[in-house]
Amino acid sequence: MKFGANDEFLNGKYMRRNTPKSVVLVPFTLLLIMLPLSLMRNSHESTHVISFVSSVNDTETERCDIFSGKWIPYPEGPYYNNETCPLIIDQQNCMKFGRPDREYLHWRWKPNECELPLFNATQFLELVRGKKMAFVGDSVGRNQMQSLLCLLNHVSQPEDISHKYSSDVIYFKRYFYADYNFTLGNLWSPFFVRASDADSNGHSYNSIMKLYLDEVDEAWASKVENFDIVIISAGHWFFRPLMYYENGQLVGCNKCGVENVTDLAHYYGYRKAYRTAFRTLTNLRRYKGVTFLGHSLHPTLRMGIGTKEGIV
């Protein structure tokens, strides 16, 4: 993918966008690189070309396909660990509970054509000063929010204000950085659309659920309007047994094993749910923010995102 003038990152390419509400597709591994670049572009309209400056010649800029590259050893290690970030929760604190190896921490993504800048927490906080950012979706997005908390921790420590906005402070978190008037949160909605249990034995890891594919989940939709930056992502929950409903009628399922119900596979529900999410964001009158589509599934399962059969 190439960075170009007046471009917007959409569907793996940079494209010209004239609409006030834009959608940006980016894998989570590069989200924290693309987000500051996008914010800088929006904050400084005169700077149209996103580029990397050569260390040999200050006037030389090079366009870079950041998705073509490889992982290389990085002896300096990670931005944080369980000793430097007190915000890591126990269920994700592998080192605290005895993981012996550390080699997996010492890698960095290296594009073939350029060097990616290291994440700068101070610069990031300056770029989001006065803004509100939310991760919407499943645990992948929640994990990204928690990682961002750790990335910012050595510059500024937030106040947990979750209780002011929700009674469910586990799945609906909000943190406030007073020094920067910046709010960071997550809105839990693994399907984006209304869902309910359909198993008579109750909810379990692989129990069947009902998805109302044309009805947005108000748990996130009713709260998202006040955010300036929204990162939405979902995927893994769509592989469980599901019954699909549209216009209040059962239209098919995924791995339900019910006689006379067509198995439409997880692709069907995945596309429909994303379409409902995008339609909701587009129709929200007070939402004027930027939406990042955080792609959390393996590239081979992209299901034609951006094509005429895709979700965008």
Task: Specify the helix fraction band.
Answer: 10-25%
The fraction of residues assigned to DSSP E strands is: 25-35%
The CA-CA distance between the termini, in Å, is 18 Å
Overall 3D shape: globular
Query: Strand order within the widest sheet?
Result: 3-17-14-8-11-10-9
Strand tally: 17
Structural class: alpha/beta
Helical element count?
5
The major pleated sheet works out as:
7 strands, mixed
| CA-atom Rg in angstroms | 21 Å
Order of helices and strands: EEEHEEEEHEHEEEEEHEEEHE
Unreliable stretches, pLDDT < 50, 5 or more residues? 1-20, 44-61, 299-312
Average pLDDT for all residues: 79
Structural account:
The chain is an alpha/beta fold and 312 residues long. 18% of the residues lie in helices and 26% in strands. It has helices spanning 31-43, 121-127, 139-152, 218-221, 265-283; strands spanning 8-10, 13-15, 22-27, 52-53, 61-62, 69-73, 107-111, 132-137, 159-160, 172-177, 182-188, 193-197, 209-216, 229-233, 242-246, 249-254, 290-295. The strands form five sheets. A seven-stranded mixed sheet has the order 3-17-14-8-11-10-9, covered by helices on one side. Strands 12-13-15-16 form a four-stranded mixed sheet, with helices on one face. Strand 10 and strand 11 (182-188) form a beta hairpin. Mean pLDDT is 79; it is low at 1-20, 44-61 and 299-312.
